[in-house]
Amino acid sequence: MSELCCICPRECNADRKNGRYGYCGMSENPVIARVSKHMWEEPCISGEKGSGTIFFSGCVMRCVFCQNYKISAEKFGREISVSQLAECYKKLEKSGVHNINLVNPTHFVPAIIVWIFTDHHYLSYITAEGTKKRKPSESLRVI
C-alpha cells in the first residue's frame, strides 16, 4: 500500500499503513466479520455445494439502510494477517464450495493482492467483489 490511501473512490489519503483510519474506518490489516459457506440465496452462484463468503468489516459507502450495518459501520469483526486470510480461503475451499465471494473487500485490496501472489491457485475461486462504488479492475489499477 502507498503511504496515503487512495484505494477506494473516496481517496481519503489516510496513513492506514501507520495505523490511521481511513474513510472506511479501517487501518491497513484486514478485518473480517464472517467466513462461511453460504447456501441458497443466489442459486446461480451457490449451486448445490454453496458459495464461500468472506465478509470484510468497514465500508466506504455509509449507506443509510445498510443490511450489514454492524459490520460496515460499527467495526464488528477481528483483525487478521495476510496468512490468516489465506487460511480462511483454504477453510472454505476444503468445505467444497463452488467459489469464494469477497463481500466489501475494496479497502483491503492490497492485502488480498499479497495473498493472491502467495497462493496463485485460488484465483479461480474468487468470483465477486461486493462493493458497488468501484469495479475490481479499477481498485487494482489504483494499486
Low confidence ranges:
130-134
Largest sheet: 5 strands, mixed
Basic shape: globular
Helix content: 25-40%
Structure description:
This protein is an alpha/beta fold. The protein has 5 helices and 5 strands, in the order E-H-E-H-E-H-E-H-E-H. It is globular and about 45 Å long. The chain starts with 30 loop residues before the first strand and ends with a helix. Helix content is 27%, strand content 17%. Helix 3 (82-94) packs across helix 4. The protein has a 5-stranded mixed sheet with strand order 3-1-2-4-5, with helices on one face.
Characteristic key phrases:
alpha/beta; 143 residues; 5 strands; 5 helices; 5-stranded mixed sheet
Summarize the structure.
The chain has 143 residues and is an alpha/beta fold. The protein has 5 helices and 5 strands; from the N terminus they run βαβαβαβαβα.
How are the elements arranged and paired?
Blueprint: E1 31-38, H1 43-46, E2 51-56, H2 69-72, E3 78-79, H3 82-94, E4 100-103, H4 109-118, E5 126-129, H5 136-142
Parallel strand pairs: 2-4, 4-5
Antiparallel strand pairs: 1-2, 1-3
Helix pairs in contact: 3-4
